[in-house]
Amino acid sequence: MFERLDEKETGSFEARRMWSDDPSRAFRRYGGMKFYVLWLLRSKNMKGSEIINEIESQTLGWWRPSPGTIYPLLSNLEKEGLIQRDQVLRYSLTEKAKSEFFPKNQGSQDDIPKSTIARTVKDLDACVTLLEDEVDHIAGFRDQIIDVSRRLERLLGREQ
Questions:
Q1: Distance of alpha carbon 160 from its chain centroid, rounded?
Q2: Domain layout of the chain by residue ranges
Q3: Tally of helices (H runs) and strands (E runs) in the chain
Q4: Top-level class of domain 31-101
Q5: Helices in 1-110 by DSSP H: which ranges?
Q6: Distance (Å, whole) CA 92 – CA 47
Q7: Digit-coded pLDDT (tens) for 44-63
Q8: Secondary structure letter of residue 6 according to DSSP
Q9: What number is the average pLDDT over the span 117-133?
Q10: DSSP string covering 54-81, please?
Q11: I need a surface site. Which of 23, 32, 63, 121 has the fewest CB within 10 A?
Q12: pTM, whole model, 2 decimals?
């Protein structure tokens, strides 16, 4: 009933398993965690446990990296001179990390807010689409939705 697929037709069995069973595994394996942790530390200094919690929060509980993933990575980043730990055990980016991974001269400063606003408007559109799909379940949130709508109208200069 279950046949093993020919590798010539499907590629490496291990590669398929790696991507299909656990996408976070591929993310970690190809260095994604390094850049994700550096990106998280760009906004604020954090302890290792706070990094774990932040990743879990940002993935809406889908993934919580283990201490065995985070702490060795933090140790390696420290050895590479990309992060440093203070007396209260919070990690922060070093100047080396800031200059290598987050250069200030990357585009004009005006481009940064525009891209953030564009992404936010796209996310807002997706949220409205979700609410449209769940219209039968939003009655309990009517007042909050009206408040958000009014704030958006003010932003557009169309106050009622």
A1: 36
A2: 31-101, 111-155
A3: 9, 2
A4: mainly alpha
A5: 7-10, 13-21, 23-29, 32-43, 48-58, 67-79, 95-101
A6: 9
A7: 999 999 999 999 998 888 88
A8: P
A9: 85
A10: HHHHHTTTS----HHHHHHHHHHHHHTT
A11: 121
A12: 0.52
Q: Is the pLDDT of residue 105 over 80?
A: no
Neighbours of 22 (CB within 10 A): 12
Q: Which helix (H) or strand (E) holds 83?
A: strand 83-85
Q: Is the CB of residue 74 less than 8 Å from the CB of residue 48?
A: yes
- Residue 93's beta-bridge partner residues? 83
Closest to 74 in 3D by CA, of 95, 57, 91: 91
Q: Which two tokens stand for residue 13?
A: 């069995």
When mean pLDDT is compared across 28-37, 90-99, 150-159, the lowest value belongs to 28-37
Cα 126 from Cα 82, distance rounded (Å): 36
Query: Has residue 73 got a pLDDT over 90?
Result: yes
